[in-house]
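Quick illustration for those who missed Monday's session on complexes.
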Amino acid sequence: MGKIEMKTPLVEMDGDEMTRVLWQIIKDELILPFVDLKSEYYDLGLKKRDETDDEITKQSAEATKKYGVAVKCATITPNAARVEEYDLKRMYPSPNGTIRAILDGTVFRAPILVKGIEPCVKNWKKPITIARHAYGDVYKASEMKIPGAGKVELVYTADDGSEQRVLVHEFKGAGVVQGQHNLTASIESFARSCFEYALAEKQDLWFATKDTISKQYDHTFKDIFSEIFEAEYKDKFDAAGIEYFYTLIDDAVARVMKSEGGFIWACKNYDGDVMSDMLSSAFGSLAMMTSVLVSPQGYYEYEAAHGTVQRHYYKHLKGEETSTNSVATIFAWSGAFRKRAQLDELPELEKYANALEKATIATIENGKMTGDLARITTMSDPVVLNSKDFIVAIREELEKIL
Ligand code: NAP
Ligand code: MG
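Prediction with magnesium ion bound:
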């Protein structure tokens, strides 16, 4: 059987540590034997970022704008310890932050469900995807401690010099104060990314804020979503048989717990931060969580939700055996191939992407898994495989399917 053909290259962003080790094994065992891989390779490993003064990260994001679909390995965000460990010229910013700033997107995170790894919430039968707005609010807030009695006001000075003021509080004693902001343009692109993603996934979209209490701030989010939906997406949603549903955040939380899953939950920045950790732990494990950045122009960047698994990498360097879970990284590849297949109309490639996911899930459901899953499975006698043997076991399943 010949290898599956591609048309447009994927933007391939290699990364660091244990996930870089997995990246190569995944390519050797699960991709290159089956697909005539076309990719434009960018090495975002920390050494290469340092050599290029981080230009490579920007180039990889620009390439994503050119081709439309990228697949990214986890990368180190340097801190002081990393600057020393890698003898870096400077403390580079987070590659994900750099890429997000260039592509201007929203991050969608969804759990991968398998039998034997059961969600804590019994009625969750399908994945719940979180769409997190990644700009502003408490993450870009200005704060002040108020030492004692006095008046705090918000003052807006327009470029023409005119002013608007509102009283925050007349303090009788000590306290704290915080000023938050967001941007209409950013909220609009958040909304469009969510609507586009819901259409692509054919799933309902939920959005919730605290608009009853926050009548200007949160209400603006609600209004922008509603206006864009009515003007640009209502007909498309009707045609796709899906719905957009707005409710109060308290009501959303209550409904999520009672639901069976299978929808996208758009969250403001803070809600998305907190709720995605709740969802990933309730569904099982960070190593079973996919993540995709979707830009309002329809560019896609797929990755795993976890980091470079540093602790396992140091064991690997010492020659010790590791049992690192490659599922989320494999699903980053399958997600990217499926999107490429849909854009380029390549049914064979789409079939391969689906088969790769099916083989991965079947391997676990047959009782073969990595240590992190063996610790939480409801199966009575799981077989714990090392990092490489787990991927080789998936290859055996994949060969059966293909
Ligand atoms: P991490 O790589 O996510 O790992 C934290 C712990 O979670 C691991 O030590 C391991 O627990 C468990 N774990 C995570 N992924 C796993 C997997 N695939 N298989 C098995 N166990 C897994 O987070 P970190 O150690 O805090 O961060 C390491 C580096 O990753 C940092 O330099 C950070 O900057 C970077 N990072 C990158 C991204 C990204 O590129 N998207 C995201 C987050 C962090 P046990 O040790 O108990 O086995
Ligand atoms: Mg968090």
